[in-house]
Specification:
This is Lon N-terminal domain-containing protein. InterPro entries: Lon_prtase_N, Lon_prtase_N_sf, PUA-like_sf. The protein has 196 residues and is of the alpha+beta class. The protein has two domains: 107 residues, LON domain-like (Archaeosine Trna-guanine Transglycosylase, Chain: A, domain 4, Roll), CATH 2.30.130; 77 residues. It is 35% helix and 31% strand. The chain has a five-stranded mixed barrel.
Length: 196
Amino acid sequence: MTLPLFPLNTVLFPGCRLDLQIFEARYLDMIGRCMKQGAGFGVVSIIEGQEVGEAPQAFGKVGCEALIRDWQQLPNGLLGIRVEGGRRFHVLDTEVQADQLTLAEVRWLEECADQPLTEEHDDLAALLGALALHPMVAALEMGGEVTGQQALACQLAYLLPFEPEQKQVLLEMDEPSVRLARIQVLLEQLQGDRLA
């Protein structure tokens, strides 16, 4: 499967929403093609390089499919799109085109069967509910009540202020229960840092 990539300084997770402003020709063309074909593109986290200009030298080998859910012309004249994270993928090979758009050969990753939330997830579920009250989270129509471990893990990993490298590790985890356990550890580290 060949997928055009949009490398960003962020990590997108399945089921999570991201608003983007598109102004570079390579990405305007890519979005146009995706909308005509009803297809998505791949978001990968930049490790080395910039979002604008030449293609980044290095990015995460696991990314998330971005499905276009809405678009509008913004007051600043740029194209605004809202995407939602779809399937995770592993980058096998890449090719940078003349316009600096990166095309990737990808393999879709299998998702584990979702498990219902248990009592041990109560605190994390309450945290997601609290995050839903934040204006930026509310604007994305995210947070609030979820029923499964997958949605809880993905939304917390996406919304909480972890380092990009930590978010990338969370994205690469297959098991939602393992991802939730890691989020708990990272939260404890954040609280420890604040108290220090």
